Backbone:
């Protein structure tokens, strides 16, 4: 899970762990990409607004990586316009949730994406 | 008479004669005289003229000057030698023509009317400028407001999300068991957090598109925005110019904007400003509703059966302007409604329905004023296409000066002589073979072929053969 707001990482991680997920966190896009190889995640949750590399760019790089093309990516954003949604889907994201994200909704989305996979 | 507010410009080889004819006006008004036609435009653009009085004797190119004055909304009184010149200059949009050598009686009321018109136009233009300035300011303020709002949003949503997450975690025992009092407190926090989330969510989803609405209101309020008279235009080039104005926006919104035009299209008799408005509205609309990475295409072509050769192109009666985009389709039952004058409802933006209220209804008014049609459709390839059909005015069609008669008996032959004497529509009437008549028609010298009934088949056969020679497929229609 990648987000530049530490409190969100902490509170969401707790929920995910209680639901049986193993969670690694990163505070920015570069750290996340570095962790890919080591962690080999089954799914990635990405915030859109991050410094330097934004969520779309990270998403695209994950999808372009031969080992991780099929890994589901969920993007989180504060914007709700149709254009931003479209932009997200164009980056190859598998799901798009708007903030404030309900962790319970996030769990359900993760479950359904991983089941399909 | 009341003085005109600005100068009268007299253009003539012999200005004194004109000044004599002007009589008291010349004494009461600031009058400038020039003896070179070319200087007229310079003078008019430099200083404000209420009126131009031109005596064309000894000048060539008076028509062109009249047309340009018309574009600048400066009235022209032309002094002419004969009816033919009067006709030419009237068609060139001179406001009034008066015969030379006669004392110009009644010039004062004409001049007064023209000057009042100029004042009215001035006043309207000033109002328009004021409105546009107000609109700019309003857009600027709205943008600032929306930027501020969206930053606030982000700064509100993030902490809100954090509060709710922690509250949920506490409530569900993820931080350890709660005693009764703690459970009650946490429930209260959860309730408030969720209430706040609900408020933030609805606020954003219903924010109106204020800049767009402001633009539409301005346009709708000033429908006679700079009504210029119609002029003969290269429609393709006009559209190309308007499309080019959107190149920067296209880059900014990551859209592919393309323009295509068929070659050899006939000219159109249109009001440049209004057509510009129509195309601006259509392209602007498409750009608003096409997501990034999409495309907006503008094309102009002849509305005629496919594969008509150049020779028959002049028979084209309509031009089709298409503005298509790769945005969301419009629901079938709304394809007509979007051209009605209304502000789109709150739901429209989230449902992705293009068509922003007044903009399209203004476009329709202007197209209809040109005798054309405009509609929207969802093409098979997806997206939306706006179609505008404009008639090719007969005045700009190269219609021949001849009626060709192909007689198959003496009666028709006699007709030739009789008709020619009558000069119907100013056309000459000649007799000849079917071959010759057809050649004339395709070459543009012949406007109409009158043929004896036994000659019609051979004419059709010839037409078909000509088309096949040129490698074109032609459908002959039969009307005897």
Residues:
């Amino acid at each position: 899970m990648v987000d530049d707001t530490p409190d969100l990482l902490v509170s969401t991680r707790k929920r995910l762990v209680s639901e049986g997920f193993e969670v690694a966190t990163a505070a920015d896009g570069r750290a996340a990409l570095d962790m890919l190889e080591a962690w080999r995640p089954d799914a990635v949750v990405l915030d859109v607004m991050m410094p330097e590399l934004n969520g779309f760019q990270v998403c695209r790089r994950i999808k372009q990586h031969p080992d991780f093309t099929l890994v589901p990516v969920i993007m989180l954003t504060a914007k709700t316009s149709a254009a931003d949604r479209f932009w997200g889907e164009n980056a190859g994201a598998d799901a798009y949730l708007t903030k404030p994200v309900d962790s319970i909704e996030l769990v359900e989305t993760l479950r359904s994406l991983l089941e399909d996979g | 008479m009341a003085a005109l507010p600005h100068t009268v410009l007299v253009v003539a080889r012999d200005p004194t004669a004109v000044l004599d004819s002007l009589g008291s006006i010349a004494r009461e008004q600031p009058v400038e005289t020039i003896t070179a036609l070319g200087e007229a435009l310079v003078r008019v653009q430099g200083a404000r003229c209420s009126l131009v009085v031109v005596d064309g004797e000894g000048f060539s190119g008076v028509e062109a000057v009249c047309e340009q004055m018309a574009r600048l909304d400066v009235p022209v009184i032309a002094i002419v030698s004969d009816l033919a010149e009067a006709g030419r200059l009237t068609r060139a949009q001179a406001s009034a023509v008066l015969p030379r050598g006669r004392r110009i009686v009644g010039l004062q009321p004409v001049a007064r009317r023209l000057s009042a018109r100029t004042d009215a136009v001035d006043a309207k233009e000033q109002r328009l400028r004021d409105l546009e300035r107000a609109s700019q300011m309003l857009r600027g303020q709205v943008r600032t407001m929306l930027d501020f709002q969206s930053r606030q949003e982000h700064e509100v949503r993030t902490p809100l999300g954090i509060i709710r997450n922690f509250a949920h975690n506490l409530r569900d025992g993820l931080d350890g068991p709660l005693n009764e009092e703690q459970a009650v407190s946490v429930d209260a926090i959860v309730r408030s957090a969720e209430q706040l989330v609900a408020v933030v969510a609805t606020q954003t989803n219903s924010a109106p598109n204020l800049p767009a609405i402001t633009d539409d209101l301005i346009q709708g309020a000033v429908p006679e925005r700079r009504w210029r008279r119609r002029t003969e235009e290269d429609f393709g080039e006009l559209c190309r110019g308007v499309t080019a104005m959107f190149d920067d926006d296209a880059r900014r919104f990551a859209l592919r904007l393309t323009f295509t035009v068929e070659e050899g299209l006939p000219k159109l008799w249109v009001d440049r400003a209004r057509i510009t408005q129509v195309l601006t509205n259509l392209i602007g609309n498409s750009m608003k509703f096409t997501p990034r990475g999409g495309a907006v295409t503008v094309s102009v072509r002849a509305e005629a059966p496919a594969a008509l050769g150049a020779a028959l192109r002049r028979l084209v009666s309509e031009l089709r302007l298409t503005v298509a985009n790769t945005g969301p389709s419009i629901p079938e039952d709304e394809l007509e409604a979007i051209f009605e004058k209304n502000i789109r409802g709150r739901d429209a933006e989230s449902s992705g329905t293009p068509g922003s209220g007044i903009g399209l209804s203004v476009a329709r008014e202007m197209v209809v004023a040109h005798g054309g049609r405009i509609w929207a459709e969802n093409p098979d390839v997806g997206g939306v296409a706006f179609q505008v059909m404009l008639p090719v005015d007969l005045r700009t069609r190269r219609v021949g000066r001849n009626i060709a008669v192909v007689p198959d008996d003496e009666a028709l032959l006699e007709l030739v002589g009789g008709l020619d004497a009558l000069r119907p529509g100013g056309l000459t009437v000649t007799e000849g073979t079917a071959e010759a008549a057809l050649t004339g028609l395709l070459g543009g010298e012949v406007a109409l072929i009158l043929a004896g009934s036994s000659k019609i088949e051979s004419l059709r056969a010839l037409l078909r053969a000509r088309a096949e020679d040129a490698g074109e497929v032609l459908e002959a229609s039969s009307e005897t």
User: Anything to note?
Assistant: Chain A touches chain B at residues 5, 7-8, 11-12, 14-15, 18, 49, 78-80, 82-83, 86-87, 90, 99-104 (CB under 8 Å). Strands of chain A lie at 44-47, 73-77, 95-98. The mean pLDDT of chain A is 85.
